[in-house]
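Thread: "does anyone have the structure for this chain?"

Original post by V.I.:
We have the sequence but no experimental structure in hand. Need at least a predicted one for the grant figures.
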Amino acid sequence: MEDLIQEARRLREEAEKELHEVLSLPSLQEWRNRHLSKKAPLSALMARLREAPPEERGSLGAGLNEARKALEGLFGEKERALREEALTKKLESERVDVTLPGRRDGIGAINPFRLIEDEIVQIFAGMGYRVEEGHDVETERYNFELLNMPEGHPARDMQDTFYLEGEGLLRTQTSASQAHVLEENEEKGPLAIISPGKCYRRDDDDMTHSHQFGQVEGLLVGEGVSMADLKGTLALFARKMFGEKREIRLRSSYFPFTEPSVEVDVSCARCEGKGCSMCKGTGWIEILGAGEVHPDVLRKGGYDPERYQGFAFGVGIERVAMLRYGIDDIRRFYQDDARFLAGFREED
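Reply from O.Q.:
Generated one for you, tokens below.
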């Protein structure tokens, strides 16, 4: 069976010669299939051992195993070398230049709604008003009845309300906070509060209306409070918000929770009150509603209207922001458009 050992040497030499020419991992796998698989010629020689005399099988098997182990060892070395070479090439091709400037994350911007809301709060906080957070979900008692709008009152029809299951509803005005504060103030003494927040009405027919909008309710109660105090307060607010040259005017109006009631206009900043397209030629732009707190509202809140008087006002946050920044569509505040918000980004 000497020819068996010679054939094994020949196969080993051929395999080693081919291995030197292998330059890639796929080619190496093909080499392994040809020389080390169960169907490879070297494996076929192992099956011929049964033809050898019993006394020779041990030495012949050892020789064949030696050839196979030698090829397996060469295969392992070649595989490691090719993997290291492939990794080196990959690192070279994907090398990162650490001297390049890094990519900065996009810088966000505060929505102009929040900018104006914060500024309004700061202005009135500077006048001594405290902030009272209200509730988005209210009852008819606080949203209507305590504000002098009993069941069947026509003013309810003017506020297309979102009613919830049970007794709840989404508040139609932040004035509901006024009812809570009046009722819960055990001392029944003077107070000055503002209540910023969202309101909800089924009203989104055009670019000036939305089913939700922001409002800052203001309330001051004390002895001898008059319309003159209201006008002075709102004139100061208008000048701080729109500029020192701004003037205001009061026009008679109607709100069920104030008497007398007024609409408040501010002089147009674009034309200085001369008349332009922005103010529709009037020189004035409406910004809020206000008035003396109705005696019935004070009475329902536990106050004596013979001793205490007060005024209340409601400022539309989007309305002020649209005038301040020249925004043409109220829906822009709620669309999360990065291009729109980029205009309000603070510079580094």
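V.I.: this helps a lot. DSSP finds twelve helices and nine strands in the chain.
O.Q.: and Residues 2-93 form one domain.
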